[in-house]
Amino acid sequence: SYEVTQPPSLSVSPGQTASITCSGDKLGDKYVGWYQQKPGQAPLLVIYQDSKRPSGIPERFSGSNSGNTATLTISGTQAMDEADYYCQAWDTSTVVFGGGTKLTVL
Amino acid sequence: EVQLVESGGGLVQPGGSLRLSCAASGFTFSDYWMNWVRQAPGKGLVWVSRINSDGSSTNYADSVKGRFTISRDNAKNTVWLQMNSLRAEDTSVYYCARGSTYFHYWGQGTLVTVSS
User: Is B44–A95 a contact, with Cβ atoms under 8 angstroms apart?
Assistant: First the structure.
């Protein structure tokens, strides 16, 4: 079955750029979504179809996908962006989530 | 306002059954695919199942195939997940989520604990 892999953790200083990667075989041939999840809350879609932002998501969130790697980029990271982030892709009628990346802003 | 409200979670013994419900409001329910996604305590998201808008097509994760059944009633704006032969590893918060390819809306989840 298809798998996507994320680094378990990433630390960034406030105001810096955070880049969270998601890797999978020929992932660039698929569309990728990204979800933010804060403790005790349901996930929130922040990027879909590789690079599109849902209404209400700040412009500092952006996405790209090419080759075997998709990337979620948070520019000018803020303390409120501290959360778990999950990538998501589709493979033959099933959904695959990455294991999640815990983003720490310190 | 789109709302998804899950219910039906609880404590069940291994081998037991449970039926989860997700009541939808604030949108035309019959226009959308619906999904169940679960999250074990302290772990990541795992997609479980999805059903198309009219209920004629369903998909399942390998880990639940043959044990879980997703269904819906568009007149009641409700989607269900019937869970049979439950195992300890099914212990999770179960979320209902709207969408065919991406999940723009999620419920707050219902906790299922499988333990003797």
Answer: no
Q: Chain B residues with CB inside 8 Å of A54's CB?
A: 104
Task: Indicate if the pLDDT at residue A47 is higher than 80.
Answer: yes
> Rounded CA gap, A57 and A60, in Å?
8
Contacts of A94 in chain B (CB under 8 A): 47, 59, 61
The band of B99, judged by pLDDT with boundaries at 50, 70 and 90, is very high
- Residue appearing with tokens 């419900």: B21
Contact A97 B107 (CB under 8 A): no
A43 close to B53: Cβ distance less than 8 angstroms: no
In single-letter form, the type of residue at position A50 comes to D
Residue A92 has pLDDT above 80, yes or no: no
- Band (pLDDT 50/70/90 cuts) for residue B91 is very high
